[in-house]
Design goal:
globular, about 500 residues, 18 helices, disordered C terminus, disordered N terminus, mainly alpha
Length: about 500
C-alpha cells in the first residue's frame, strides 16, 4: 500500500510548496514548544503553586508523549492520508496549547502538555516524510530538506529567547497561546493545498494492539528511567526496574508477528546508518540546547530573556548556513559533506568545554557560531540518504524511526549531562575545598582569585563566605566536562560515516 495519495501527483507546484510550507510552520511550532518553557519554569511554578520537584514533568510529559507517538505516524498516514493526519495533529496540538494556557493546576497542565506532545510526535516525522513523498529527487528534495531540517533545529534554539521575551513582556499563558495563530495559518494552507483522500479504516485491522501497548509502556519506562537515573543512580532499584521494563517490552514487541514499529526497515543499511547518525546528532543538538541555559542560569544568574539572546547566536548561524548547505549538497558527495558537518559540530561542542564561571556572550559566541554553521551539513545529506533510497511506501515508517532516533538521542544526552552535573560538580567542590589547604595557589587559580583572598582554613565563617564561588567553579568544571563528552560522542559519527562507505548514487525515492 503506497504512502502517496493516488492523486497527489496532480497537485500544482505552487500548491505543493504552499502546503509543505504550512506543514513546516506546524512542525516549527511543535519543536519550538519543547524549549519555549525551559527558561520560564520558575514563573509557572510560582503562578500555579507547583513544587520545584515536580516542575520537570512539564517537559517530561511532552517528551514521553512525543516519543511514543512518533513511530505510529506511518500507520496513521496510511489510514488517514497525509492531509487528514496533519489537520488532526494540528487541531490536537492547538487545542492542547489553549488548554495549557487555561490550566489552573499541575495536573491540568501536565495533561494538556501530554496531548501537545502527541500532536508534535505526528507533525515532526510527517514533515520529513513529505519531503520524499511530495518532491522530485535532486534539487527539489535538497531544498525541501534544508527548509524543513533547518527549521527543525532553529526551533529549539529560538525557544528560550521566545519564552523569555513572552514571559517578561506578557505572561506565561502566552507561551502556549502563541501557537494558535501560526497553527491556524498552517491548517488553512494544508487544507487548501493538499487533496482530500478517503479514510482506509480497514488498515487498522493490521494494528497489533499488544505491540502498541508494549511500545507505549516501554518508551515511557525508558524516558522516566533516564529522567530519574541521574538523581537516583543508574544502578538503583528504580532505574534498573525501569530499564528492565523497557528492554523486556521492546523484545516482546520485536518478536510479535506484525509489530507496530517495522524494525525490518533497518535492514536497509542507509536507513540503519542514518538512524545511528540521527541518534548521535540528537545527543549533541538537544543536549547543547539544554546545557547552555542551565549553565547561564546556575552560574551566570541570568534571566530568561538574557539567556535567550545568547542562545540566539546559534539560530542565526544556522540561517546563514542554510543556503550554503543547499549549494554544497549539489557539489560534494553526501558522505563527505556529512563528515564535514559532524566534524565541525563536534569541534563546536568541544570549544565550549573550556569556559569559566565568568563566561558570557563574548566567550560563548564563536563556539555557537561553529555549531550553528555545521548543523545544516549534518542534516541535509544524512536525511536524504537515510530516507531517499527506500520505496515510497516505506518512507513514512522509516521517517518515524529516523526521528525517534534523534529524540531518543536527545533524552539520553540530557540524562548523561544531568549525571555529570550531579556527580562531578560535588566531586569538584570537594577537590577545590581540599586544595585550599594542600595547594592554595592552585585553588586560587581555579577560583580566579589571588591566594591572599583565600580564607583561613581554620576560619569556618571565611570558608562559608567563599563557598558560593567554590560551587560556581565546581559547576562550571562539570559543565565543561559535559561539553567535552558531547563533542567526543558526536565525533563517533565520523566512524559511522567511514564504515558506511561511499553512497552508491543519488537517492531516488519521492514523487516523479
Amino acid at each position: 500500500m503506497s504512502d502517496i495519495p493516488m492523486n497527489l501527483g496532480t497537485v500544482s507546484e505552487t500548491r505543493k510548496w504552499l502546503g509543505f510550507a504550512g506543514l513546516c510552520i506546524a512542525m516549527f511550532m511543535a519543536v519550538l514548544d519543547i524549549q519555549i518553557v525551559i527558561t520560564s519554569l520558575s514563573v509557572i511554578e510560582e503562578a500555579l503553586g507547583i513544587g520545584a520537584d515536580r516542575m520537570s514533568w512539564i517537559q517530561t510529559s511532552y517528551l514521553i508523549a512525543e516519543i511514543i507517538t512518533i513511530p505510529l505516524t506511518g500507520l496513521l498516514m496510511r489510514v488517514l492520508s497525509l492531509k487528514r493526519l496533519v489537520l488532526i495533529a494540528i487541531t490536537v496540538f492547538t487545542a492542547a496549547s489553549i488548554g495549557c494556557a487555561l490550566s489552573t493546576s499541575f495536573a491540568q497542565l501536565v495533561t494538556f502538555r501530554t496531548f501537545q506532545g502527541m500532536g508534535a510526535g505526528i507533525l515532526i516525522p510527517t514533515m520529513f516524510s513529505a519531503v520524499f513523498l511530495l518532491f522530485r529527487p535532486g534539487q527539489e528534495q535538497a531544498l525541501a530538506t534544508v527548509m524543513g531540517g533547518i527549521l527543525a533545529v532553529i526551533a529549539p534554539t529560538m525557544g528560550p529567547v521566545t519564552g523569555g521575551l513572552i514571559t517578561e513582556t506578557l505572561s506565561w499563558h502566552w507561551l502556549f497561546l502563541i501557537n494558535v495563530a501560526p497553527c491556524f495559518i498552517a491548517a488553512v494552507l494544508v487544507f487548501a493545498c493538499f487533496p482530500r483522500e478517503p479514510i482506509k479504516l480497514g488498515l487498522l485491522k493490521q494494528l497489533d494492539v499488544a505491540s502498541l501497548i508494549f511500545l507505549a509502556v516501554s518508551l515511557a519506562a525508558l524516558e522516566i528511567g533516564l529522567k530519574e537515573a541521574p538523581d537516583q543512580g543508574w544502578l538503583s532499584p528504580l532505574s534498573l526496574a525501569l530499564f528492565g521494563t523497557f528492554a523486556g517490552l521492546t523484545w516482546l514487541m520485536v518478536i510479535r508477528p506484525a509489530p507496530v514499529v517495522d524494525f525490518s526497515l533497518l535492514k536497509d543499511r542507509y536507513l540503519a546508518y542514518g538512524c545511528g547518525l540521527s541518534f548521535i546528532l540528537g545527543i549533541g543538538l538537544i543536549g547543547s540546547v539544554y546545557l547552555l541555559p542551565v549553565f547561564l542560569a546556575l552560574v551566570g544568574y541570568m534571566g530568561p530573556l538574557e539567556i535567550g539572546i545568547i542562545i540566539l547566536v546559534t539560530g542565526i548561524a544556522q540561517l546563514v548556513s542554510a543556503p550554503l548547505s543547499v549549494v554544497l549538497d549539489r557539489l560534494l558527495p553526501p558522505r563527505l559533506l556529512a563528515m564535514i558537518g559532524f566534524g565541525v559540530f563536534a569541534a563546536g561542542l568541544a570549544m565550549s568545554g573550556f569556559e569559566t564561571s565568568e563566561s558570557g556572550y563574548d566567550e560563548l559566541f564563536w563556539a555557537q557560531v561553529v555549531r550553528g554553521l555545521a548543523l545544516g551539513f549534518c542534516i541535509v545529506p544524512v536525511t536524504r540518504f537515510a530516507l531517499g533510497f527506500l520505496p515510497v511506501e516505506k518512507v513514512s515508517d522509516a521517517s518515524g524511526l529516523y526521528n525517534l532516533s534523534r529524540a531518543l538521542g536527545g533524552v539520553i544526552g540530557i540524562a548523561l549531562i544531568d549525571t555529570l552535573l550531579f556527580t562531578r560538580s560535588a566531586e569538584h567542590a570537594d577537590r577545590i575545598t581540599s586544595m585550599m589547604t594542600a595547594d592554595p595557589a592552585a585553588a586560587a587559580s581555579l577560583l580566579r582569585i589571588t591566594p591572599d583572598e583565600l580564607p583561613d582554613p581554620e576560619d569556618p565563617t571565611g570558608l562559608l563566605g567563599i563557598m558560593d564561588t567554590v560551587q560556581e567553579t565546581a559547576v562550571t568544571l562539570a559543565v565543561n566536562e559535559a561539553w567535552l563528552m558531547m563533542g567526543a560522542l558526536t565525533a563517533l559519527a565520523l566512524i559511522l560515516l567511514w564504515r558506511l562507505g561511499p553512497i552508491r548514487e543519488e537517492p531516488g525515492a519521492g514523487m516523479n
